[in-house]
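Listing 4. Sequential folding, example run.
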Amino acid sequence: MTVDQQHTDIKKLVVLGGGISGTGAALLGAQKGYDVFLSDGGTLGSAFAKALQEQSIPYESGGHSIEMILTANLIVKSPGIPDHAPMILKVKSEGIEVISEIEFAARFTDEKIIAVTGANGKTTVTSLIDHIFNVANLEHTTGGNIGKSFAQQVYEGKSTYRLLEVSSFQLDGISTFKPHIAILLNITPDHLDRYDYKFENYIASKMRITMNQDENDFLIYNTDDPAITEAIKNANIKAQLIPFSMENELEKGAYLLNNQIHINTHNSLFTMPTEQLPIKGKHNTANAMAASTTAKLLQIRKETIRQSLTSFEGVEHRLENVLKINKVQYINDSKATNVNATYYALDSMEQPTVWIVGGVDKGNNYKDLYSLVNRKVKAIVCLGTDNSKIVEAFGNCVEQMVETSNMEDAVRVAYKLATAGDNVLLSPACASFDLFQNYEDRGRQFKNAVRGL
C-alpha cells in the first residue's frame, strides 16, 4: 500500500488558517482527493485566495463556522493557532484528528527529509545547507517555517531531498513525521506563552523532531547546550547521535580546535579555519558546523563544502549590515525575536552600540543580557507600544534611554545618539506584532529609515 492510498480513506479535510502553510495543505489535500474546506479567522491574503479559487477549493475568512469544521475527519491547523484555543479543544473532544501541515505533507512523501530546529540560528543553518546543496547540485526543495510550506513543495512535485526549517509549533502537531537528518541547534526559553510558561514543555516540543527516527537516521545536536544534553539522556533516541561543540574536542561529530572547524564522520576528517567563514561570531561558527556536518553525512565532497562555506552571504534581517553613515554602521537584526538571539547579536558587537529594542514581550527574562549591555551598549532606543519592561530591566545599565513608537523616530534618535565608530543595532528581542506585520516588515522599515537619513 502506498503512502497515498493509506491516508486518502479520510475524505473530509478542514484546514484552519489560510496563510502559507494552510494554503499549501489545502492544495495538497485537493490534489490527493480530499473534500477540502479552508477556514481563516482573519483576512485571507489575495494571493492565497486566488490559489484556492483556481483549484475550486471552498473557503471562509473573518471567522470560523464551527458546524462546518465539525464535519471533518481530519483537521490541519496553522502553527499560529494554539492547542488550547477553544475551537481546537472542541474538535479534539469530538475525536477529530488535528495535525500540523508538516505532518500532513509527510504522509504523501517517502523522500529524505532534513529538518532543522532550535530557538535560534535555524534560518541561517537551513539557508546554509540550501547553499551547500545548490553548489553540490543536489536535487532538493527548501522551506517549511521559511519560504514555501512543505505541503506546497509536495504538491508541486517530487524531489530527492526535502530541506525544512521547523518550529516547535509545527512539531507539536506531528505523529509520523520522520526526518532522515534532524538538527537540534539550541533550546532556550522562547514562546513560553504557548507552553504554560514551563520551559520543560518547550524542550519536550523541540525533542519531538527525533521521536520517529530509527537507527538509519541521524540527530545532529549541540552538546554544549545543557537543556539538549539532559533531554537526550532522558529520551529513548534510536537515531545515530552526532554531536557538535564549540567547547570540547569530540571523537565523533564536529568541534572547534585552534580556530579550526573539525568534522569527523564516516572515519574521515574535514577541517577548515574559522577565519575563512564570511559569517562572523561564535554562534555562526556553530551554525557552520551543523550545516557542514549535515553535508558530510550525505557524503558531499569536502571541496564542495569548503567552497560553499566561503561563499555564503548570510540571511536577510539577521545581523545584516545595512549602511555606514558618518562612520556609524547600521545593522539589521530584526529576526532576533527572543533574548537569546539578541544575546548573540550583542556578543558579536566590537564597537560601542546604540541598541534599538522592544516589541511584544513573550515572557522574556532580560537578566542574561545585563553584563553584555553594561559592556557593549552606550544608549538604548525603545521601540514598542509598551516599553515598561525594557525600561525597568535596563534603566540602570545605560546613561541614555529614549522611548519611541515608530521606526522612523527610532532610527532618527539612534542617529543623534551615535558618534563615529559606533554601531546602531536593531535587535529587538521581542515579537514584532505591536507595530509591524512581522519581523521582515520591521527589518525592511529599519532599512528604509536608515537609507532615508
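-- end of first protein; second protein begins --
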Amino acid sequence: MAEVLDIYEANAQAWDMDRGRAGERLMERPYLDRLIAGLEATAPHVLDVGCGSGDPIARYLIERGCRVTGADGADAMVQICADKFPQMNWIVADMRTLDLGQRFDAIIAWDSFFHLEADAQRAMFPIFAQHIAPRGLLLYTSGPSHGEAIGEIYGRSLYHASLAAEEYRSLLSANGFTVLVHTENDPQCGGHTVWLAQAD
C-alpha cells in the first residue's frame, strides 16, 4: 500500500488534471444517482474513502447537496481537495485504520479499496460497518473475480486485488449489509465491477 500511496503522492497534480476531465462524461453517474436517490437525509453526509483529488466524484456529490468527508492516504491529494472545496472536511488517513468516531449516510470507496491486498480488504468491512448509519449505503468497486493484477500509471506499476464475488457477499452479510446492486465489468462504466449495499 505504501508504494500505491507514493505513486499518488508524487503525481497528484497530474492525476487531478487527468481525472478531473472525466467529469465531462462521468461514467459513474448512474451509480452515484442511484446512491443519492436512496439517501433519506436532506443533506446527506457521505464519506469518500480514497477521495483522490475530489474530482469528479466528490464534486458531483457536493453539487447535489451532499456534505462530503474525504479521506485519502496521499497528503497531496487531500490538499487539492481542501483547496477546491474548503467548506468540506478532508482528512489524511490510511483507510485500513480509519476510526472517525462518527457514522455517515453513505460510504464510497470507488477505485480505492481495490488497491488493498486480500486480507486488508476483508478487514475493511468491519470499518465500513463502524462508520455507516442505519440504512446507510455503501458503494465500492472491485475486480470481477479473486486475484491480483498489476496495472501501470505514470510509468510505474500499480497494484490491484480482488476477492471473489461470493466472498464479498459473505463479508457484506456478516457485517450487516444487504446487496442492492452487483454489476460485473459494466461496459457503460469503463468495465468497472460495482457493488451497492445497504446497512441494516
